[in-house]
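User: Show me sequence and structure for the first protein, then do the same for the second.

Assistant: Starting with the first protein.
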Amino acid sequence: MRLFLFAIVFSSAGCTTYVPFGAYKMKDAPKTELALNPYNKFQFILDYKNPYINEHTHPEQYYFRTDGTWEIKGRDLIMNSTSDSLKYPLSRITITEGEERDSNYFAFYDIYNERIPILQVKHADGYIEEMNDSLQYSTVGNTRDTLQFYFFGYRPVTVINSGETGKDYIVFVMPEYRPAWIKDMHLRVKKVRSNGTRTITLNWKYLEERIKKEPDEKYSGPPMF
């Protein structure tokens, strides 16, 4: 498994003290975020644009989040993820009354409240609708059906179409949680600039090596119906 991200510098405005509290976003992938709080806790979210020409490829690459503790040693910020055996939900579904129509509406949002493109919809009878990364929603007939939606960066989401007419299915999808994922990762903290910003340089080689060690396999979770 390999990621194709190019920026390795995080920046945060308004950090004038040596301890770099605040949220740092990746320059060319602003949804990749490192949040540091003043109690030596952090949360890291990996979320980037699909880099492949064929957007349906590499379904095994998933966005994720991890959290843990950080400390400063010299000019280095050192992070370690905590171990947590809790299982966190990967989606939350809300069903509301929509417009009067003969189909139901399905839309998916990420943690930043932005639409997630739908790449495929699989029906209970095995029929698969191929879509593209410009499709921001899906409409499905009012026949009762179990639907499985596929995206880049997220596990498939299963939604039961109730068969009622004119329903809006609004689904929030979360990156999976990975405990103990970061171990002794070093980030270089640079001096505060004249405009009041501070940058953190990520040891991207560490992340690449860490990701390469993961199984490069397609999703092997629960059976597809």
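Switching to the second protein now.
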Amino acid sequence: MTIFRPRGTIRAWHRHPYGQAMLLHDHVYVPIPKSASTWCKQLWAQGRAVNLLVENLRDLPHVVILRDPIDRWIAGFAQCQVGNDPDWEGHWERLGWDWVFRQVVFDNHTEPQVSFLSGLDLDRITWFRVDDDLESHMIQWMKDQTGIDHTGLVADRYRGSDQQPRMFRGGRQGRSQAELQTMAREALATIPGARQRLEDVYQEDLEFYHSVKYVGKEQ
């Protein structure tokens, strides 16, 4: 039994989803924000919601999906910032990219993935990763392990919300998640030291992401 303990401090964010999980056919799916969790919960919808902090489920096999930490930060930054009013004095565009890359972690969408693995038995986890093969690998695995066949299911993976700008009072239009992601990628590519800053903050995440053996992937 290998119980995982993150090296860093786990932040106690408001409505932090740590402990949230789905139980289906004696398998426990542990969702991580911005790691295909919305999409995957639809596949596991025939199960029931559980809390790892309350129920003793450690002896059951677990399922976890990881995402490249830098790509996840881009998506997480866009989601957590899209709802901020552009007229607010604390809006990130008023504060600038230097402030963004000093802060880095804003909420559970940008908190390191390893935070959500704390206390789990690594020897009982089946690992998937967010890539072009995730859908086919997860669907095949679920068919083999649970007998549930999602082949042909059109899961609502993205909901289209990333393309829609948020509207604020007075008809002021904010940026969409897609636009924010594009801006973040450009900033990482052009601002000296920006990418290194993320790699420093997510060092443990990056090491862990590249260390596990994923379903359907040669290690």
